[in-house]
Specification:
The complex is a heterodimer. Chain A is an all-beta fold. Chain A contains no helices and eleven strands. In chain A, strand 7 and strand 8 form a beta hairpin. The N and C termini of chain A lie far apart (36 Å). By secondary structure, chain B is mostly beta strands. Chain B is built from no helices and eleven strands. Chain B has strands at residues 4-5, 10-14, 19-25, 32-38, 45-51, 56-59, 62-67, 72-77, 86-93, 100-101, 105-110. Chain B is globular, with a radius of gyration of 13 Å. The chains are: A mainly beta, B mainly beta. Chain A binds chain B through residues 4, 33, 35, 40-45, 48, 58-59, 90, 92, 98-99, 102-108, and chain B through 4, 6, 9, 32, 34, 36, 41-46, 49, 89, 91, 93, 95, 98-104.
Chain lengths: 114, 111
């Protein structure tokens, strides 16, 4: 049982380049989330999805887009990377709303934008 | 504005002693609180939670206390073990909202 899998684990981008981070979960969870972790800031919600075909903005959505075409996958896209997007990105999933079921996190993607 | 604050970036404790990690919040609408534990190069994992209708929840060596009037919660680990060394995040939730995380406290338990 893999849980939540994120690819890639590491990536270096130049300013202006684009990339997509992939998150896959095998727990049949409805809810999926993308967070970023920065020093002194904790985890901040970028975008989330409450089911296949749905997406919604979180606390810090600017500069990112997401898609949930299949229930098990949640993609995070950076169209034009900026140094401010250097961060560790975590994907998470939950069976229901987080009040009733805790989040399960992937192991993160470390992104550096130069 | 930081709605959930963990004011101690780090804490060092001797093995066998009690570890107390603190968390303060500003939004009185929060009604559910969680603690997550994170090891290096791994994602956070759920540890323990508490609803605002309770003031204490215990799970083995881990106890969370909630003081609603002070808008403060704490995580007690007794006895502390070297394997408890990790970053601990508190998080808060209100109905219809999404989890808000604190900045994290790095706990080091020394043998």
């Amino acid at each position: 049982n893999a849980g939540v899998t994120q690819t890639p684990k590491f990536r270096v981008l130049k300013t202006g380049q684009s990339m997509t981070l992939l998150c896959a979960q095998d727990m049949n969870h409805e809810y999926m989330y993308w967070y970023r972790q920065d020093p002194g800031m904790g985890l901040r919600l970028i975008h989330y999805s409450v089911g296949e075909g749905t997406t919604a903005k979180g606390e810090v959505p600017d500069g990112y887009n997401v898609s949930r075409l299949k229930k098990q996958n949640f993609l995070l896209g950076l169209e034009s990377a900026a140094p401010s997007q250097t961060s560790v990105y975590f994907c998470a999933s939950s069976y229901g709303d987080v009040g009733g079921s805790p989040l399960h996190f992937g192991n993160g993607t470390r992104l550096t934008v130069t | 504005d930081q709605q959930v604050k963990q004011n101690s970036p780090s804490l060092s404790v001797q093995e066998g002693r009690i570890s107390i990690l603190n968390c303060d919040y500003t939004n009185s609408m929060f009604d559910y609180f969680l603690w997550y534990k994170k090891y290096p190069a791994e994602g956070p994992t759920f540890l323990i939670s508490i609803s605002s209708i309770k003031d204490k929840n215990e799970d083995g060596r881990f106890t969370v206390f909630l003081n609603k009037s002070a808008k403060h919660l704490s995580l007690h680990i007794v006895p502390s073990q070297p394997g408890d060394s990790a970053v601990y995040f508190c998080a808060a939730l209100r109905q219809g909202g999404k989890l808000i995380f604190g900045q994290g406290t790095e706990l080091s338990v020394k043998p």
